[in-house]
Amino acid sequence: MGNRASARLTDLTTKCPSIYIGPTYIDPIYTKMNTHHLCLGILSLGEASGYEIKKAFEETFCHFQATSFGSIYPALAKLTEQGLVSFREETQEKRPTKKVFTITPAGHEHFYQTLLKSEPAEQYRSDFLFLMMFAHLLPQEHIKTLLNKQTENLEMELGILERILTECQTLTPGMRFTLEYGVTGNKALLKLMQQRSLQLLNEIDAARSPQES
């Protein structure tokens, strides 16, 4: 999975058009990122199909952005209608015709303005942390399973990010910083999991009455 992520990011960045230089910077009025903006961001790196955009979210951008597959195609349709992206159709043998999307000059301008106006806030969503919030209601074995699974997920994501950093030769400084941010965060979380998992289980067990434990 890591190799595919690295290859995909390399493929996108090597197809990247000349760097777009926008107008003079002005103080932003912040807006929030949505699927439309995220699709434009990926297409600013190079042309891609809807499936390739989905894979980019799952692999290359997985540690800081997410969107549902069902929201990508409606977003691309709207962006096409607005003239921010265009597409061509590619015939595939024994498979449906594939649409390959490309960002337009108007799309570059729109995305640039979005970058200027987007609030640098982190909206952290974690089903794991929600489950841990109510871990006192769960059986000990189930809590152990959740902790082990989360550790595996963090290790897998860390491996993907480290492989991209090592293998991809076309990273921009900002891309490298973003990946290093993810690597640093995952390492810190793994350290916390190692230090606190057993302690958490013991604390929950001690807090329960003899009848509950």
Automatic annotation (TrEMBL):
InterPro entries: Tscrpt_reg_PadR_N, WH-like_DNA-bd_sf, WH_DNA-bd_sf. Coiled coil: none annotated. Residues 40-111 form the Transcription regulator PadR N-terminal domain. Gene3D superfamilies: 6.10.140.1570, Winged helix-like DNA-binding domain superfamily/Winged helix DNA-binding domain. This is PadR family transcriptional regulator.
